[in-house]
Every structure is written in structure tokens, then in C-alpha cells.
Amino acid sequence: MNASIQVPWQAEVVSRVQETPSVFTLGLRLDDPAAPAPYRFAPGQFNMLYLYGVGEVPISVVSDPEHDDEIQHTVRAVGRVTHGLAALHPGDQLGLRGPFGRGWPLEAAVGRDLLLVTGGLGCAPVVSVINYAMQRRERFGRLGIVQGVKHMDDLIWRERYEAWAGQPDTQVQLAADVAGSGWNWHVGLVTDLFDRLGMPLDQALVMLCGPEPMMIAAIRRLLELGVEAESVWLSMERNMQCAVGLCGHCQYGKDFLCRQGPVFNYPDIRDRLGVKGF
Amino acid sequence: MATGGASPGWRGFLPREAFDTLLRALEAAGYECIGPRVEDGAILYRGLSAGSDLPQGVEEAQAPGHYRLQHTDTPRCFAWAVGPQAIKPHLFTPREALWETERDADGRLTFRPVEPGPRPLAIIGVRACDLAALALQDQHFLRAGNADPYYAHRREGLFLVAVNCTHPAATCFCVSTGDGPQAGDDCDLALDELDEGYAVRAASSKGETIVQQLPLQALTEAQQAQIGREREAARSAQQRTMPAGNLRDHLFNAWEHPRWAQVAERCLSCGNCTSVCPTCFCHQQVDVPTLDGGNATHYREWDSCFTQNHSYIHGITLRPDTRSRYRQWLTHKLGSWHDQYGRSGCVGCGRCITWCPVGIDITEEVSALLAEAGK
């Protein structure tokens, strides 16, 4: 019986970074003899992380796909499993199975301008692409990076954004709905930022991740600015338990997010996006 | 799928008193036989060691929210339509251990898959609607290149003895979905029951091997005519219908229809319909550690889109009310299934009507949704 896809491998925490009071990044190393070596994934794909005695959660991979000594996951402590994962430290063990789902269209992105849009705390899947593009800068055209948060304190990796802003052919715009002192970026919505990028968008390939209302508003504005609908890709979220298209929780119209997604081309889900209860 | 007017292909007649030869032949071929038995006031598929275990003389009365067995003088053992479950729980089990984790004193983890035991089953007395549902579950769990090993293991060894339905319940509507009441060739043996025994047809090579071991008699012309009449009667007796064709666009166009809120006022969101539905496949995963902290078993268990947890993501329940959950169930089963599995997820067995505690009737709800949605 081949149950491998449904049974985790042993993994060990090799690093842990507290990003904000509730967000942390775990670096993992597979130490299961049955695990593939090297472990390969595509940015935008996710793993199921298993906490002993509690259960599993789907978490996207943020590290570089060719950097295989540490598989990094950025997690927000919000539920039973993620609160437990937050208590893990280097040397602790957990289970990992994956990668699952369809990642970002990085082949199609070669040679094109990229616009990477994230909102709220759901930024990890897109940050994996930013890291990927920064490491392979020559493959892509101009790079636009747009990130919006509700409160300025919700922004993680501000130093990274500010460092990316200093790179050639790279535009970074950040926004917070609520900001206090020390915020020298825009106060307002993500949708305000596209005009401020100072780069043409009509030829760009766009990748978005974040709350659905933010993505819908952003796409509406981007289409007005001449972005082609077929050039828009977004990462969706639903309850996932099996990650192999069987358990039914992530069913989204004709798709199961864990198989046909979580990254979708906008025209494929346009009719469903934002429909309440879907 | 029912074959309608195709040649019946009967191999002969098995007298009722010789029914046990079928069980013995299946046992000799290595199968554990299960079939309908009366338990807890319902017909359930349990271990079968003799024909006398069958529900002889039992008929049933089904109506929305109503199921009662009645004892009659009929010598027949299959004078009923469908109990609450048939094949589904024997392949896609209500609870399945997927893996075990061992944790040593240093917190090191070892994972071990749990292998389903070798248990080739012969299920006796399945209905055409159940076979149609099985074909759908096969599509879901045996997807090419990515088959679920737990389901596949049980499915591989399965032997199916269909018994054509002669007593459809008031809740049945398999004629309108095209799934019954007569079994096609997606089984191993197909029987038609008469008062004195069974007409037997082999539908597979496995079935052929078993048929050759049975003390069959010639099937008389009178018996054949009787079977024909009963088959026709079973078709024409059905009172309910599901609108034909792909309802996806009609249902999605009715997304904001007031009927969803009306049905939600009656629906208890209990999940009975999804439990008895032979095609519903949703399941959740749970981890159960032992008290000493040294082991945990990871299970999958039947879940329902009527629960609060089904649509939970990071602190949000996407379908917080009964209205959105009933709509999810219906638009998936009768709508998105066409895109995912090439047909509707409803096979007309009527179980969700019978076992709904408040008697919500899926055919009535669909009619109401379509009527005002302009179909």
C-alpha cells in the first residue's frame, strides 16, 4: 500500500524567528529517511505541518526552492495547531508532508515585469516569489512590490521591504490604514498604491495574496490601469485537511484549492471570487 | 447505470432454499459476506452467514422524516428499497486510522502508516442507486495517478451482488436521475427476486466463476414475464422526480433565492443527509494521542458541510449559517459535481429525505428553487 502522500515525514526545527508578537518563522529540516532528498517545491505551494497529538495545518513555503537545507514556513498563531507550533524551538520535531497544490506561474513570468501585491498578514506566499525574483533578478523585468496592512504594526519584514526598495529596477510601495509616528509610507489602501509605483503596468504579470476583499479591490483597479485579466494570478485560502483533493473542505466550485489551486489565474475564478458563502 | 431494455442475460433460477450455496461459494472464494439484516429497527448491511439472516417478510414505509419496518407474509427477503446505508461505509469507512505517531522520551517522532486489514468483502443486496453512487465514489477516491490507498484496498477486493429493486419507497426517485431501479453491469452478479427464489445474471468474470457453482434451474417463461412486470411496476411506482440535466447554472443563478432562507428555518444543520448520502465524501482529520503521551493515531472521520468547522479558516467561518450550508450542499451536489465528476452527485435513493429529522425533501427544494429561478 502506498500511503506516503498521506503520512508525514519527520522534520526538525532548525531555526525560529519571532517576526511579530503573533507571527513566527520556522526553519525545518527533513530528517526522515523516506523523505525525498533534495526536497523540491515551487513557490506558492504549501506543506501540511503536523504537531504531535494536535493535528495538521496547511502552511505555504517561504524559503527559496533551491535552498534545501532549511524549509521555511511563516506562521501566524491563530488556532489550536498554530499556537502549538509557536511553542516549538530548534531541536523539536514535527511532521511534514508536501508540497501540495499549484504554485505561481514562474515560467510564464520570465522576461516580464512583475507586480507582487500582498495584503494583511497573508503575505508569505507572495514574499516567497519576491525572494525568488531577487535571487534571479536577471530573469525578470521591472519589479513592483505593493503591500498593505490595516495597522502599521501588522507589517512584518519592513526592513526587507525597505532593502528591496533600494534595488535597481524595483519599486516598493507600502500602505497602512492606521499609522502612527515612524510611518513614512502611505496611509490608506493598497489600491491607492498602484499609481504611485511609477512603472507601467499594462505588460506586467501580477501575483496577489491576501484577504479576498483586498484582492478584489486591487484587481478592479489594476484592470482599470490596463493590466490584462489573464496576467493576474492570486493565491486563495480555504480549510484544508487532506491536501490531496479528497476531504472536500477546500471545494470551490469546480475546483479543490489543494489540487487546482491555491494559485489561480484570475479569469478562471472571476465568477466565484467574492461570492459570500462560496 | 440501468440498462433498460437490454437483453436480461439470465443464467438460471436459484431456488430460495438454495440461497446458502451462494454464500458458501463466496466464502470459499475468500469473501466475507455481508448483506441486509434487521438491526435497531432498520435494514443494515451486516455479516451474513445464512439466507435465514435476511429480512424475510420485511417491508418498509418511508416518507419525509419517516422510516418504519413492517412484517408481512411475503416470502421475499428484498421487499424493501434502501436502508440508511449500504456500500459507502464499507469502503469509505466512517472512521479510518491513517497513521500512527510514536514519540520517544526525547520527543523524536516516528510515523507509521496504518494498513487496512485484508478483508475482501462480498456485499449482497446492493441496489442500482448504490452502484451508481459507488461509481461516483470510485471517481473521487480512485483518481488516476493519485488513488486513495485505503479506499483502493477495500475496493479491489469487493464482490457485488445486486438485487433489482421491486419495492421502491415513496421517497425514491432513481428513475428520474437515470440510476435505477434496475442494476446494469457495474456489479458481479445481479438477481431478480421472485416469491420462490432468484433469477441470476453474471455481470463480470468473477461473477461467472461463482455462478458456475450454483445449483441453478431453468428460468421459466412465466418467471421471466413476472420479472418484466415487476421491473416495470418498480419504475412506474416512483412518485418523486429530480429535474433532469445539469442544474448547475440554474442553481448558481438562484444563489440569492429566498428559498435558501426558508429551508434554513426548518433545517437543523444536523448532517443526517450527508451521513446517509451514498455519494457524500467529506471527511475531517483528527489526531488522538494516548494518555501517556507516547503515541497518537491520526484518523479521518466523516465530516459534513453542515458543521461549523467545515468552512473554518484562521478564525473565520465562511459559512456561518444554515442557509449558506444548505446552499453549499445542494449547489455542490447538483451543480459543481457536473464539472468535477461529469454528472450530478444525486442518484435518487431518497435517503436524505427519509432520514431528515424534519423531512426536508430535496426534490421539493430543487423544484422551488428552479421554478422561481426561471427554469
TrEMBL record, chain A:
The lineage of its organism: Bacteria, Pseudomonadati, Pseudomonadota, Gammaproteobacteria, Thiohalobacterales. GO terms for molecular function: 2 iron, 2 sulfur cluster binding; flavin adenine dinucleotide binding; metal ion binding; oxidoreductase activity. Coiled coil: none annotated. [2Fe-2S] cluster binds at C242, C247, C250, C258. Its cofactor is [2Fe-2S] cluster. GO terms for biological process: pyrimidine nucleotide biosynthetic process. This is Ni/Fe hydrogenase subunit gamma. Residues 6-106 form the FAD-binding FR-type domain. The keyword Metal-binding applies. It comes from the Bacteria. Binds 1 [2Fe-2S] cluster per subunit. PANTHER family: DIHYDROOROTATE DEHYDROGENASE B (NAD(+)), ELECTRON TRANSFER SUBUNIT (PTHR43513). Keywords: 2Fe-2S, Iron, Iron-sulfur, Metal-binding.
UniProtKB/TrEMBL annotation, chain B:
The keyword Transcription regulation does not apply. Keywords: Iron, Iron-sulfur, Metal-binding. The keyword Transmembrane helix does not apply. Pfam families: Fer4_22. Residues 258-288, 337-365 form the 4Fe-4S ferredoxin-type domain. GO terms for molecular function: iron-sulfur cluster binding; metal ion binding. It comes from the Bacteria. SUPFAM superfamilies: alpha-helical ferredoxin. PANTHER family: ANAEROBIC SULFITE REDUCTASE SUBUNIT A. This is Sulfite reductase subunit A. The lineage of its organism: Bacteria, Pseudomonadati, Pseudomonadota, Gammaproteobacteria, Thiohalobacterales.
